[in-house]
Amino acid sequence: MSENKRKRRDNEPENLSDYAIYLDDVSKTFSDGVPALSNINLKIKHGEFVFIVGVSGAGKSTLIKLLLRELQADSGTVFVNGFNLMTIKHSRIPKFRRTLGVVFQDFRLLKDRNVYENVAFAQRIAQKSEREIRRNVPSMLSLVGLAGKYKAKPKQLAGGEQQRVALARALVNRPRLLLADEPTGNLDLYNTAEIMRLLETINENGTTVVVVTHNDKLVNDMQKRVVTIKQGMIVSDAENGGYFDED
Amino acid sequence: MKIRTFFYTIEQGIAGIFKNKWFSIATIATISACLFVFGIFYAIAFNVANIVRSAEENVSVTVFFDEGVSEERITEIGEMIGRRSEVKRYEFVSAEEAWAEFSEQLGEYAEGFTENPLENCANYQIYLNDVTKQGQLVRYLEGVEGIRKINKSDFTADTLSGINMVLIYVFVGIIIILFAVSIFLINNTVTMGISVRKEEITIMKYVGATDFFVRAPFVFEGIILGVIGAAIPMGMLYYLYGIAVTLIHEKFAFLSFLTFLPAFDIFEYLVPFSILIGVGIGFFGSFFTVRKHLKV
User: Fold this and answer.
1) In what order do the strands lie in the sheet with A49-53?
2) Would the CB atoms of B203 and A108 count as touching at under 8 Å?
3) Which of A57, B86, B101, B123 is the right S-S partner for B133, CB 3.0 to 4.6 Å?
4) pLDDT given for residue B95 in this prediction
5) Which of B152, B181, B208 is the last residue of a domain?
6) What percent of chain A has pLDDT above 70?
7) CA distance B176 to B188
8) What domain range includes position B230?
9) A65–chain B nearest CA distance, Å
10) Distance from CA of B2 to the nearest CA of A (A)
11) Is the model's pLDDT at B42 over the cut of 90?
């Protein structure tokens, strides 16, 4: 099959390799008929730092689920890290997800494993050798400032520390894109600032960072690109923007 | 699968048993209880079947010959009988042997006879492979020239084949019921145990684990629990079977006519069968329960 035919089949944009996220006219309606996202157009280039903001129920979580391919869009074009998420086979989803890092508000750490094992776990899934794991995990824990706590179990850590473990796990496989869903939602001001500083460092090192949040102060302080979602639609997309006050 | 993934699977499967020890204990207990009941029934059914089989072996058809039939014809008839598939073995009983046996039963009353009153009672005693085939053999023998009379016991044959059929129906029925109950109980136990770990499965999937990578430790864990759940009741039953047989012979002398199978004969098939059931339940229980949570 020629390259042109393949592109036509996948509805693949010409300059796709420039984008970490490429959403074109994407819509998603829940099974009860309620529209979650309508005609979303969102292009995020590699290396960008983007906030996606909106009130609860605006459609931010649905968007993250689409980007993780936990949900599939009803229509439109969805490319993430070069993978066409509208046509991807179930068996290819794990491979796709290994190109992402993901961080959640509630950390989602494996409670029965220590810090080291939580981070090493992502490497084991990526089938890294023990030698690579022994090299990569400590360096990632150093990056997030937890090298001294590698033996601790999640419940022995404060919220900010748990989120840093989650960050280390998300980054240890060196993903091209980091998705953070309300990463500071459960943290105090100090830890929020620490996590954001880490995300900036990660971004400066070349990883695309997308942060979903409704923390207006955080967004206004950072002066990054801000995409605002309201009732399932993008109502604002501003470079160096602030939190869009829908009221 | 890479070797390190294989060992990781085994390590995580074993670790899972200890990490979720209450779930493991509940699963093992459920499988053990089901297979224990199954084992008891199996042992009883096999012993009853053995007793019926022993009784069947003594059921015979007796064939008497026409008066004056030649010895050659009697031999021919014997050969014809021997070729029949229903026949396990047959014995020729001459008139003298028949009288000798009968006179033993008569005791002193036999002394008054000067001639053999069973002169025309030379016969073949035919023992069958399967008593249900008695009618088929008798119909054949009725058409054989040189045969005067056929003695058979329809009642005994019918009763024994009836018991056999009932045993088969009851055995199959109880196995089906036990299976259904076991699968229901075990599925609930496994579902509860794995549901607690739903979050763990979700995290694995988000990080990019394949379905196989997520499922394999659970399935391995299920198999281990299944084997342990089968081994425990088999060990207990083996021990209790010996005690039960001794107790019945010692305390219930009137049941001494019952011959119990040796433990080895019972457990030779019961153990591998039970372990297979345990492994199957563990495998499929985990496989399908984890599948519900893989759609992330």
Assistant:
1) A100-104, A177-181, A208-213, A49-53, A225-230, A233-238
2) yes
3) B86
4) 78
5) B152
6) 92
7) 18
8) 3-55+159-293
9) 10
10) 8
11) no
